[in-house]
Structures are given as C-alpha cells and as structure tokens.
Amino acid sequence: MDSPIKIQIPREYKPLFDTDWRHLLIHGGRFSLKSHTTARALLLRARQRKLRVLCGREFQNSIEDSSLQLLTDLIAKYGMTDYQVTKTSIVNTVTGSDFLFKGLRNNSQSIKSIEGIDIAWIEEAQTISKESIEILTPTVRKPGSQLIWTFNRLTELDPVYETFALKPRADAVVLYLNYDIAVKYGWLPKEIQNEIEYDQENNPELYQHKWLGQPIAQTNNSIIPRTALLEAMNRDGLADGAIEIGVDIARMGKDRSVFWKRQGLKTIATEQHTKLRLNDLADRLEGFAELDKTILLKLDDSGVGGGLTDIMIQRGYNVMAINFGQKPIDPNKYPNYISEAWFHLQSIMETVSLPRDNDLMMELSTRQWKMDTKGRRVVESKDDYKKRGYRSPDLADACILAYYTPQYPVTDWASPIF
Fold first, then answer.
1. pTM of the entire structure?
2. What are phi and psi of 394, to 5 degrees?
C-alpha cells in the first residue's frame, strides 16, 4: 500500500488553521511562501468540513488571473482525488466545500450577492482599494467567517495595511515573513538564492522591496508623489472627450510593447504584448483602436518603433511620431520631449484617472529628475533607471505618451494697421 503524501506547512504559518481571528494579514517579500502555503491550508481545511471559500483579488479580467491554477496544481500534486475542478470553480465531493473566484474592482454587485462565505482569501492585497475593503468586509458576514490578506507591501499607504495593521486590532493577526522561511526549511532553490544575493549587493533598494517586503522608497527627486498616484488610481473619473492612444514599442525580448488608451483624462484600456513581429503588432493596434482611423495614435518612433509608425501611416491611421529625445515645446524649461511630457503628467495628476497597477505605480513613482547646467528639469535616462535595478519602464512611457499631446505654436502673421 502506498504511503500517504505528506503536505508540509511551515510552523510560522500555523495561524492559517486557527479560528480565533477575523483578519489574518500575511505580508513580506518574494519566496516567503505566502500564496502556496495559504492555498495548501485552505485545501486542507475544506476537506475537514464544508466551507465556502472566496478567492479574490482587486483585478481579475479572466479566470486565468485568479488563484484557480495554483489550487489546481496543488490538488494534482498531492493526489486530492476528492476535489472536482472545473474551468471556473473547485468543489470537494466529500464535504461539499466550494471555491469561488472573483475580481473586486467594478464588480461590487456580484460580490454583495454571494451568500455564506466562510473564508475570503484576497491575493495581491496591496492593490486593494478602500472601496473594495468596505464592500467585502460586510459581505463576509457569516458567524465565524474569516478574511485572509496576502501581499507584498507597495507603499506606506496601502489601504489594507492602513486598515488592519497600522493600528493594532484585537481581531487581526499580522504575519511578516520573508525568504528566510524557505531557507530555514531547505526549500530555497539555488537559482533564487543567487538572485537574492545579486540584488542585495547591486540593487539594495530593490532588494528591500522585492525580497524583504518593504514599501518602495521614494526619494525627494522623484517626479510624481506616490500619494498623488494612489489618489489617481482610486479616482473614478468621467470618460469624456477625445480618445488618444500612446504606444511604447519593445526593443528587446523581455520588454513589453504597451498600448495605452485614454478618453479625456481617464484611462479606459491598456494592452501589453511581447515578442510580436511589427505586422502582428500593427494588427493588434488596429484592434485596440477599434479600426477608428480618426483616433490620434502617438507612437514612440525611435528604434524599431519607426517601423510600426510607417505601417500605421500606410494603413491610413492618424499617427503622431514621437522621439523621446526630440526638441520640447519649451526648451527653456526642458532639454527634451520626455522630460516635458513627464512633468506635464505631474501637473495634471490631480485630475487624471489611472488603473491601479503595481508595475505602473513602481514605474511612475521611482523615476527621478535633476537640474542640468542651464537650470532645466531633466528626467533620468531609461538606461540609468534600469541600472538602479528596475525593469524597462514600458507602462510609464506608454502612459506618458497617451497623456501628453504637444501643441506646437502656429505662426500668425500680423496685418499692418496702416
């Protein structure tokens, strides 16, 4: 007879099996085993008695964005044949427990209508808005019901941390765990250890956030204040006015080509693509523009972007080709277009409506500036930004392109008065 498969749970995660708390916050850096351990614990608890488990996150455009795949993989790994998995749910055929998967943003009525939730597990909880917290907490109202929040802190102002951890609450347990948990139990792969050591030596700021779960530091010479970004990401602005699209083109294999669409001051859609040929990228861009050739497309025309510019012009689209190094409208204040565009976004931050996105928050809040010898404000180069340990700021660049449309002066010849 085969021996039963053992499911190992780090002792530090024992509170996952307790029932005397209302809120359990688990935060820390990468490879602290937050998601895998929480998933294991929920699968085990749902085998003991009937539970309704809501697996949620702020943004879930499709079931692929959810925790379904992680739970499915663990069910297969541990041979849990009492679970039946479908494309959208998981049910335990013995206890009757079921797992549901929902996005919280713009889905309030659907969330409010769910009855009998025993446990809500919210992944990537650093992105949760105050509004979603206020909708979810009274929805999970069954006696003895619990909420688990797993996250890597993004800022000092993350609503979930402010609400449940900043001031001690009698009904909340807070666990702060990092990769040393994996080291302790011998579960840290050598490849990850090498990544950690490299970041620790070469990118200490990124190491603090990525591996130790500390909020992203923001320096005095960051361009856009993080508080203003959070407000913009929580602002449900009115989509009113002309539609414009900014397009940043990938130059390397891991870089992203990003489409960014705004209507008036509200972002209404984004898309990301990698490793596409220019003709394929042009096809996707046509779909993103919904074949409307009157929409202004502002394309990064430098490097390989020039090829996409040519294709879209040939197809009859309204294209504005932009090189980030080109001359700005006001050369007395800025040395180049990209610096002028960045500070334009800063100046309208109190009115724009942006999607809540971790990568976007990182890219927009960590880009720095300085004064040049002529007293002009200069945004740090993309190469210098990447040398500080950050990935290519493709989302930020597409956003900047979408929101800044340079208005070049038009010559108006004066008429003689006599």
1. 0.62
2. -70, -40
